[in-house]
Design brief:
The protein is an all-alpha fold and about 80 residues long. The chain is built from 2 helices and no strands.
Length: about 80
């Protein structure tokens, strides 16, 4: 059960965050493809593709956390 909302505080719309799933998937795919390209140039066995997938996930997570912190700060004002 939730209590009353403090005056002046608005809850963000869920649609505001709907694009983050696409951003997550897109960044993973882009960084993985970049890693695959580097693997092809250097002849490595896929290590850059895996690293690229992790880097893409980290970049998307970082962007999401920054947006959430920005929204939280905006709601506190």
């Amino acid at each position: 059960m939730t209590g009353p909302k403090p005056p002046g505080r608005k809850e963000p719309s869920p649609l505001r965050y709907a694009g983050f799933g696409l951003q997550l998937a897109g960044s993973i795919v882009v960084f993985m493809l970049l890693g695959t390209w580097v693997d092809g140039k250097l002849g490595t066995g896929g290590i850059f593709a895996i690293g690229g997938a992790f880097l893409g996930f980290g970049a998307a997570l970082y962007a999401l956390l920054r947006q959430l912190a920005r929204d939280e700060k905006r709601n506190d004002e």
